[in-house]
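Replying to the earlier thread about multi-chain prediction with a worked example.

Input:
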Amino acid sequence: MRIVHPVEPDQPPSPRSGRDPDHAHGNGLVASGLRHAYGPLTVLDLDTFTIAPGDRHAVIGPNGAGKSTLLGVLAGTIRAQTGQLTYNGHTVTRHGAEWRARAGIGRTFQHPTLWPDLTCLDCVRIGGWHHRRNPDRTPMETLHLVGLADHAHQHAGSLSHGHRRMLDLAVAIAGQPRILLLDEPAAGLTDTETGRLIDVIHRMPSWIAVVLVEHHMDVVAAVADWITVLHHGRRHTAGPADTVRADPRVAALYLGTNGGGHAAHP
Ligand SMILES: Nc1ncnc2c1ncn2[C@@H]1O[C@H](COP(=O)(O)OP(=O)(O)OP(=O)(O)O)[C@@H](O)[C@H]1O
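Result:
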């Protein structure tokens, strides 16, 4: 895939430095002993998974490896059968997705649903409904960031697939997350949209952690400095992005010579 970066960025990229304006970054999200099964099928079995402020962490693995399940457990849309989660030192295991979103754990979805009868602008307004502080940017500025300013008054239901994904991202950003969980954000995007997505992630302030589940390895290479590889719900490999991408065991997993499913070659 050829990634096209927007020719004229509308804002300078955010430096990976700076300070959380409300000093609320704490020590991030720490999960331990996560286990989840559907019937006899264990789809998640992780001893620990940690997200620290500012992380750029990709979770990759063959189809069915448990990546979306992990994101769901972290976001609170799936309750793991066992395990504990703390966020900035507080136990949040039993708190649901809405509480976690308000606390700063935002997410996008593999299949965004949004509100089809609302305009893009109203969707972004809803995304920011729980602000505890002055918004980082107006809803219109958020739409501009993701390249949807010209579609502000269009109904979400009439957007193209790629634009719907970018709107889902805008809605998540409007919630001013401290941890942003992205589930296959590049799936189905054009090259130009993919370039825009990478640009948006690069502009995230340094105190925001971004965790993305992604099959597009050029997107992973562009944004992640740490990669966890899941296989059958377990950690197969984890480490600095360059090291993991060069690991022949990971390539073997993707090529199916290690009992894995099919997916793009890392
Ligand atoms: N609600 C459910 N009921 C039963 N099985 C499920 C359910 N959700 C997911 N699974 C199964 O759990 C396993 C892990 O699914 P998950 O979506 O987490 O994997 P994934 O790594 O995100 O896959 P992909 O890359 O294909 O999106 C798969 O075998 C999937 O079929």
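The pocket of adenosine-5'-triphosphate is lined by residues 38, 43, 61, 63-69 (CB under 6 Å).

Feel free to reuse this layout for your own posts.
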